[in-house]
Design a protein that fits this description.
globular; 5 helices; 6-stranded antiparallel beta sheet; single chain; alpha+beta
Length: 247
């Protein structure tokens, strides 16, 4: 993780290797992190959960302490695996990972994989809130080799908060695309989600956006900052709101 080109020379390489699960000579990786006094951010590349995916890239931008980011880094992948294989319909795959690898949707992953990832985010959010006040964003990329054509690699991105995932091919900026969309209170999807949550707590039509407040004659603005959505963080009137996206 490097914050700004001017700081690139300060980044420290913390992990590198070959993504063996994708096949021989398909992909190598390196993880670099800019030193931080608070040391709240973590990143890591994991190996395969056979049948589900062949590699996972995780990045967590922690705040308010170290616990949340480290808990997610350590626990997310095992939690996804546990949530998937404990489902009655999936227990047959525990001993037959080859069959699992072939049971895919159009995106190259098992049809139930997305929901397991989202559920894992929610479980980790609850676990963090029980033990610590810290929070973290999350940006996770899952890679899986194609079944019919092993040369293909399927990519799935899951995220919480405003850590961003960008895919670039052959180091060409003209062949770059965003894989994630920042969770910010100003985006329409987040305004709708926060409004539903707030109205549920305080009654219908109780939530007002900044623009709605400013449109009233009695509006008085004294500054402030937008809430940051993340695992384990405090947002609005309830703590620890989170949302996992997987696509």
């Amino acid at each position: 993780m490097i914050t700004g080109v001017q700081n690139a020379d300060r980044a420290k390489l913390i992990q590198r290797g070959v993504l063996e699960g994708l096949g021989k000579d398909v992909a190598s990786f390196g993880v670099a992190q800019w030193p931080s006094r608070k040391d709240e951010d973590v990143a890591c590349v994991n190996g395969a959960v056979p049948g589900l995916f062949d590699a996972a890239v995780q990045l967590y931008d922690g705040h308010g302490g170290k616990h949340a980011a480290r808990h997610c880094l350590k626990t997310l992948v095992p939690k996804i695996e546990d949530l998937f294989f404990t489902q009655k319909a999936h227990k047959r795959f525990v001993a037959d990972r080859a069959a699992l690898a072939k049971e895919t949707g159009k995106d190259g992953f098992h049809p139930s994989f997305d929901q397991c990832v989202v559920n894992a985010f929610h479980v980790l959010d609850e676990e963090i809130k029980k033990h610590d006040e810290s929070g973290t964003t999350a940006a996770v990329v899952f890679l899986k080799k194609g079944v019919d054509n092993p040369g293909d690699v399927y990519v799935k991105c899951a995220w919480v908060g405003d850590s961003r995932v960008v895919l670039t091919r052959d180091f060409d900026w003209q062949r770059t695309m965003d894989l994630s969309e920042d969770h910010k209170p100003s985006s329409q999807s987040e305004v709708s989600r926060i409004r539903r949550h707030y109205d549920k707590l305080h009654g219908d039509d109780s939530f007002k956006t900044r623009d709605e407040v400013l449109a009233t004659p009695e509006a008085s603005v004294r500054g402030g900052a937008g809430a940051r959505e993340s695992n384990g963080s405090h947002s609005g009137s309830s703590k620890g709101n989170s949302r996992g996206n997987s696509q």
